[in-house]
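Retro notes (design track)

What went well: tokenization of the new backbones is finally stable.
What didn't: we kept losing track of which sequence belonged to which structure.
Fix going forward: every design gets posted as structure first, then sequence, in one message. First example under the new rule, 255 residues:
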């Protein structure tokens, strides 16, 4: 078993079989689905995925783990191992029908990996990711609070937290709790009239001082504040997606 864990690659391996099973059970893929696993590590989740599907691609950055995975699995055209940084991977290589993406993601690159997939044109059926709970709550905040990340990703997908995984399920044991999230593509809030890059810039300004009233960042965006359907006394976290789309819309009309 692999023990030479590299902290800089976020290597906390999920060892608890209960949670490995639970991750598999919460997904709706079947034997005909195309699966992609990001950061397979030494192949704990991979074993389950490989057993339950005919087509699996693994993307791993660490050459020591590539060596272990090559020995552990019989690689062929249905079980492909790619030695590459996922952030540098050309996603056209993984464009497939009926695609399900899995990963116990490295904590230091989780949000970049998720945004790379969400912002791409890859058509996935579902992503199931294990990430730090704190980050999961930024993607899918509780109590109807908004965050910059939740508003940004709301345009691209639906993200829900399924369950938590205690730190004792991992080796080495991290300091924090993790959560399993499910992502499904949902572009109901975005159409051709929406400039996503401009939307991101507006969010950046609005959430730069989360404790101040929304009037404060709006003064930086508009030379004259237009009338809005929401109260300008609200804080950025109290605004919902339609409020931010209204800001974008009125910003577009200003210039
Ligand atoms: N899936 C394994 C498990 O659950 O036991 C390992 C999960 S570990 C948290 C993260 C894995 O992602 C490690 O195998 C690490 O080497 C790999 N990794 C880290 N950064 C990566 C990147 N940019 N691209 C691909 N793999 C990466």
């Amino acid at each position: 078993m692999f023990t030479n864990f590299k902290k800089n690659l976020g290597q906390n391996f999920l060892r608890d079989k209960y949670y490995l099973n639970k991750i598999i059970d919460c997904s709706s893929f079947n034997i005909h689905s195309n699966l992609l696993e990001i950061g397979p590590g030494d192949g704990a989740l991979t074993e389950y995925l490989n057993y339950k599907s005919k087509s699996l691609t693994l993307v791993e950055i660490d050459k020591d783990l590539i060596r272990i995975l090559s020995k552990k699995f019989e690689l062929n055209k249905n079980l492909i191992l790619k030695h590459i940084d996922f952030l540098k991977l050309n996603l056209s290589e993984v464009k497939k029908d009926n695609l399900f993406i899995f990963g116990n993601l490295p904590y230091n690159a989780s949000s970049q990996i998720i945004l790379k997939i969400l912002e791409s044109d890859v058509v996935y059926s579902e992503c199931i990711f294990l990430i730090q709970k704190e980050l999961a709550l930024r993607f899918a905040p509780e109590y109807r609070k908004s965050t910059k990340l939740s508003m940004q990703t709301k345009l691209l997908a639906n993200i829900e937290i399924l369950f938590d995984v205690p730190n004792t399920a991992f080796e080495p044991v991290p300091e924090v709790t993790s959560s399993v999230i499910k992502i499904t593509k949902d572009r109901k809030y975005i159409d051709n009239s929406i400039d996503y890059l401009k939307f991101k810039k507006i969010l950046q300004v609005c959430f730069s001082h989360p404790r101040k009233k929304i009037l404060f960042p709006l003064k930086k965006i508009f030379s004259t504040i237009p009338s809005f359907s929401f109260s300008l006394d609200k804080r950025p976290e109290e605004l919902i997606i339609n409020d931010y789309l209204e800001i974008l819309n009125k910003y577009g009309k200003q210039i």
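Added context from the reviewer: Residues 196-254 form a domain with the Helicase, Ruva Protein; domain 3 fold (CATH 1.10.8.100).
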